[in-house]
Amino acid sequence: MENTRSYCRKSKDVSLQELRDMLAEFARVRGWEQYHSPRNLLLALVGEVGELSEIFQWKGEVARGLPNWTSDDKEHLEEELSDVLLYLIQLADVCGLDLGQAALSKIVKNAQKYPVASPPTNPAYH
Ligand SMILES: Nc1ccn([C@H]2C[C@H](O)[C@@H](COP(=O)(O)OP(=O)(O)OP(=O)(O)O)O2)c(=O)n1
């Protein structure tokens, strides 16, 4: 499992559980579990959110689909988004939480809070 080729397999769908297990193994074989406390992972996550923000900084509004971005720019964005996701998954894991189930529950809650029949403007912005 701990080889680059197994990380690079092309998969149509990858589950949060699969990513969680790969990350746990990644940390375990490097002896990094001791550093992966909830607080440290949260700080790492926030740091990566900062790196993600830098990509958009000073660019002005960006069109959906990023039509004018180079493939290098898009690859950089993919990497920073992944860093955020991977730290988020690890944070949930070391907190003993099931992030996939939590997200599903939150989507249900969101739908109840913002029913389709509510006014046309999104109340979250008011
Ligand atoms: N203790 C660590 C260190 C790294 N990673 C993983 C999660 C992220 O996906 C990635 C972060 O690695 P870097 O700290 O090297 O950050 P970047 O990839 O953003 O590199 P740089 O900051 O040089 O752009 O590696 C991890 O799980 N645990």
Radius of gyration of CA atoms, rounded to a whole number? 18 Å
Spans of at least 5 consecutive residues whose pLDDT stays below 50 are none
Helix/strand/pairing class, anyone? mainly alpha
Strand content: under 5%
Mean pLDDT: 92
Pfam family, one: MazG-like
Keywords: Cytoplasm, Hydrolase, Magnesium, Metal-binding
GO molecular function: dCTP diphosphatase activity; magnesium ion binding
EC number: 3.6.1.12
For this entry, give a set of tags:
Helix Hairpins; 5 helices; binds 2'-deoxycytidine-5'-triphosphate; globular; 126 residues; mainly alpha
Describe the structure.
Keywords: Cytoplasm, Hydrolase, Magnesium, Metal-binding. This protein has 126 residues and is an all-alpha fold. It has a single domain, classed as MazG-like (Helix Hairpins, Orthogonal Bundle), CATH 1.10.287.1080. Helices cover 60% and strands 0% of the residues. It has helices at 4-7, 16-29, 38-56, 71-94, 99-113. The protein is globular, with a radius of gyration of 18 Å. 6% of the residues are buried. The model has no long low-confidence stretch (mean pLDDT 92). 2'-deoxycytidine-5'-triphosphate (DCP) is lined by residues 32, 35, 51, 83, 86-87.
Describe the structure concisely.
The protein is mainly α and 126 residues long.
List the helices and strands and how they pair.
Blueprint: H1 4-7, H2 16-29, H3 38-56, H4 71-94, H5 99-113
Bound molecules: 2'-deoxycytidine-5'-triphosphate (DCP).
2'-deoxycytidine-5'-triphosphate (DCP) binds at residues 32, 35, 51, 83, 86-87.
